Amino acid sequence: MRTISDPTFVFVPGGSSNARAWGPLQNELALRGLRSYAVDLPGHGDRADHPAAYYRQPQDLAALAAAPSPMRGLTLQDNVRHVVDVLHRLAASGPLILAGNSFGGLTVSAVANAVPELLDRVVYVSALCLSDRAMLTEKWDVVDDNLLDAAVARIAVPGAGIPGVARLNWRGAHADPDLFAQLKAAVMADSTDHQYRMLLDSLDPDENYAVLEEGALVRAETWGGVPHTFVRLSEDMGIPPAVQDYMIRKADELTPANPFEVHTLAASHVGYFSRPEIFADLLADLV
Length: 287
Description:
The chain has helices spanning 23-31, 61-66, 76-90, 104-114, 134-137, 148-155, 177-187, 193-202, 241-254, 271-274, 276-286, and strands at residues 8-12, 35-38, 96-102, 121-127, 165-167, 206-208, 228-233, 261-265.
């Protein structure tokens, strides 16, 4: 049986990211007396066998393209099993709030579908929330003027050819001031250059796009019974506000009796890394 206490926040990272990105926010939550745990999804983080060529200087792009991926063969269900195991291990300590950013929203949704009884709330920090099968297969009825797609196209590693996996050379931006500025404007314009360099160095080269599948769609009978919050980021140029609003509206149509609780912060896509104080204040208010 769980004890009654303040919740533990469980954080799921966004694309190409890992537990390290949540460190500044976790520190701020700790200063407010709140517990948290940041997940490394399978194939991500310090224990994953990332290509050595990604870290060597000068970079050898041919070697980087040829290196095997730690994400080969991984599925959305591998993410779900990993996060559910973490939740079971934490559940004895009290309520659990599962939060994700960006691409991590897909895993948050799938976990909430699988074990709604373990969760007291789910939080989408400008994260993907897909509520309709058409959102996987058809063009969305919203203007998406994001800056991230064009920037990411410039760092895609040519010739990698890993099924279901995108390999991105984030560290290549250190040697290209124009590319650095373009990526920073897309995801963390409200940071200093130094902060963005630290974020770049923490990112993993590979991301598993095989998780964009029907298991990531929220379901009314499971996810729909869990209180859910959307942290809308008004300065986000990775997932612009219009796209965030579209996802909120579509999800609310699925569960009209349990709509999103929406909060807006004037912050960038990864603002929780550069300005963790305002995110910690908001999450503390949820408690």
